[in-house]
Amino acid sequence: QVQLVESGGGLVQAGGSLRLSCTAPRSLFSIYLMAWYRQAPGKQRELVARIRPAGTTYADSVRGRFTISGDNAKNTVDLQMNRLTPEDTAVYYCNRAPSWWGQGTQVTVSS
Questions:
Q1: What is the C-alpha separation between 56 and 46, in angstroms, rounded?
Q2: 86 near 109, Cβ under 8 Å?
Q3: pLDDT digit string (tens) for 8-47?
Q4: How many angstroms separate the CA atoms of 86 and 107, rounded?
Q5: Which of 15, 48, 108, 110 could form an S-S bond across to 36 if both were Cys, CB 3.0 to 4.6 Å?
Q6: What backbone torsions phi and psi does residue 107 show, to the nearest 5 degrees?
Q7: DSSP secondary structure letters along 50-89
Q8: Is the CB of residue 93 less than 8 Å from the CB of residue 39?
């Protein structure tokens, strides 16, 4: 069953911003095992950003525009997305390594 819950998706114009949030049960949450992925229509799911002890990692396509952050007190991991483009349109999924996933939240960027 789904244990990660995403929120914050929606429709935005190119150049705009959205903030996604993922909440996990305390028993499951571990900040250094959290990540965001996305899957566009007809494409494979890809890593967008993740938090690891050595630091954060971003896909080349989002580096400098997206920021991942976690809050241990709230059991949440957020993804701040700025300067969005139509190419960012996808379903965004929260992941807790190795194999816990949220249900996904749709992000649509209009041109």
A1: 16
A2: yes
A3: 999 999 999 999 999 999 998 999 999 999 999 999 999 9
A4: 10
A5: 48
A6: -120, 125
A7: EEETTEEEE-TTTTTTEEEEEETTTTEEEEEE-S--GGG-
A8: yes
Dist CA 105 CA 95 (whole Å) = 12
Alpha-carbon gap, residue 19 to 32, rounded angstroms: 20
Q: Give the C-alpha distances (Å, rounded to integers) separating 23 from 20, 43, 62, 86.
A: 10, 26, 22, 26
- What per-residue string of b and e applies to 51-82 under the rule 16 or more CB within 10 Å gives b? beeeeeebeeebeeebbbebeeeebbbbbbbe
User: Could you give the CA distance from residue 94 to residue 29 in angstroms, rounded to a whole number?
Assistant: 12
Amino acid letter, 63: R
